[in-house]
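Late entry, evening session. Most of the bench is empty. Finally got around to the prediction I had been postponing all week. Sequence below, unchanged from the version circulated by S.P.
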Amino acid sequence: MADTREERPGPIGQGAARQAAPAKADPDGRRWRSLGPAVPGLLFLAIVFLLPVFGVFLRGVTDPVFGLQNYAELLGSGTFYDILGNTFLVAILVTIFSILLGFPVAWLITIAPGRIARIIFAVVLLSMWTSLLARTYAWLVLLQNSGVINKMLVASGIVDQPIAMVNNLVGIVIGMTYIMIPFIVLPLQTSMAAIDKTVLQAASVCGARAPVVFARVFLPLVAPGLTAGGTMVFVMSLGYYVTPALLGSTRNMMLAEYIVQQVLNYLEWGIGGAAAVILLVITLAIYLPVLGFQRNTAST
């Protein structure tokens, strides 16, 4: 005899709800698990970068005794402000000249035929692979009073006597600009290569002249690369040591030279550490707003 009992259904939707119940979302857990592969890199950064910076900070507040006397001595010294002013002046000039010279080089790489563009790009990279000390000494030889540049200027009649281009601001700016140009060319060329050429052609077809197309179309499109490269050059110039030490003089001393002098010559580790922390704070105060500006530009 067949069983005629009917199966009573439960509350409406109860079975479906049990089957379709999603797993509890755990975004925080997924976020932390996704950081797992980055742990070795974060540990490396902490050991190689954060610990030395923390050690420098401790030197500034513990040597010779615990306190802020090193910072008070620096911030109350007119010499320190002169050195800080020299540092910013050199960094600004190097950034300006690097942009003025690197911009056409980046554009030439972008519009040149493939083989020529690769050759120019290789020359730019080759300058980065050459020893910094060797390049600086080469400029020292070229710029001195009996160097090739002064001999050419005198022989051509442009000047009557050699121009002093070493042990002064001129030599520092020339040497550092040469070294920094690749750091402005690379991000600029990347931005330029990403521009659709039809956009520039459309602006010309609509009647815009070349200066207008450059100022209102081309320049805004390369602004991210220009900002990134300019910021990189400026920040690197603030802490540069080798080139200013060889091509400059005590009258044009930069902050990195001052720190080395305090540590090596006078064994004033506390003063050197405090000066390094001040330089780091100034650099971060400049870099972080620029980074925020780049993010806002990229989002729009």
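Two things to note before I forget:
The mean pLDDT is 84.
Residues 115 and 121 are 10 Å apart (CA to CA).
Will write this up properly tomorrow.
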